[in-house]
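Issue: copy button drops trailing tokens. Both records pasted manually instead:
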Amino acid sequence: MDLFKVGDFYTQRIFESQSRSNGGFGEISQGNKGTNVLNESRIKVLLLDKDTTPVISMCATQSDLLKHEIYLVETIENNERDVMRHLKCLVYVKPSDRTIDYLVKELENPRYGVYHIFFNNMVSKSQLERLAEADSLSAVVKVEEIFQDYQVLNEYLFSFGLEDRGLMTQQGIWDESALDTITSSLTSLLLSLKIKPNIR
């Protein structure tokens, strides 16, 4: 188990993303073997949310970004971004309802030429349908699940970044939403490490 290697594998997969010939919403991709990049700019923007920003910051340096021609990093929550249709946008976000709302608004009025969307955990069919309906300009050329819903701290240590959220309610019972978040993040960890756990 080496979390640095896993983090590096996933960041390289995002940074080196190329289009699939059949477009983004035809299927969820599990690879990046497409070659349809003739009309795409080499210069890229990386669009993150509040959950994936610390994930990327722990796995990639500014030099790594520049090496892959990523010259701009933005957050999807920022509504003051400029329109730059000549840029390819690499989106790396958590598939939460809040982030899907932001993505829907983004695709209804796209600021960039094409979008390669990566989710850091499993995305639901209903969420994909919402995005497909919003993408009337066919700006999305790729959708992929990346199982890294956790922050890499060192080779053997990770964090779910939940320090500000309590796991128990004031009545001393499990907070259902926090428990669901931890379960989902732990599932992504196991999938990324290809580990089948023994639950006792």
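Record 2 (pasted manually too):
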Amino acid sequence: MIELAIRTLLKLKPRFLYARADDVKVKTYRIPLLHNQHARPFRIVHISDLHIGFNYTYEDLIEHINKVNTLRPDIVMITGDLFDRIDRYKGKPQAFSPLLRTIQAPSGVYFSYGNHDQRSSRTHKIQQVIEDSGIHLMNNFGRTIDYDGEAIYISGIDDVLNSKGNVTQALKNRTDSHDFTIMMVHEPDFADYVKRFDVDLQLSGHTHGGQIRLPLLGAPILPALGKKYVRGLYQLMHHHHSMMLHVSPGLGTTHLPIRFFCPPEITVLELTTKEAE
């Protein structure tokens, strides 16, 4: 019955239903966060939750990478769940590496594990795809980049649900806690813990924005550690420190191959200096 209802809806293609790669929306936030008043705006493109292999194909990825590249990002950050189940993927996962290598971002492309990536039987395969793509794997690890004289610390932790993650280890290479710090964490609700560590921006996915959203009611089904912060931009406080959190609605789907009132999204976070605003 459910499959029949889905097929019927797909034929009707109502405006609130999204099931194709070209349904993707681009949303831009302009956020005054950088410290150096001389720095140019820093363009982050944030994507998440492609779930390749579950209603998401090689051709879908081509379309989305082309869209990402037209946005001219300084950096691209992918917060997990690249494949839905790489150990059950019928094709050759390594075929995606040359395609992922075509993402254009002068400050690099970064990836952190999601709960669909980080399992004992899958992690090595995902790691191989990422490394062959020239993408930086941020697994309880961080590094500093220089952007127009602004020291930006890029970090990411292991998936929280399966491997707990290690924020302290991810920040180990940060030489100054005042450096502008970005942390990639697949599960957004973990932000209530991350905000204690002088992190300025957390990027997350995991929720798919709810994927199925009902008018007035919102998302009736949400995953563990994705029930409080569901999609969009949030500001969290810890004592006198403010941390921004962005939760990506994601590009793919899982369990059901459709979205209701929740389009897939590529997000641009344009970070400006506080003085610029």
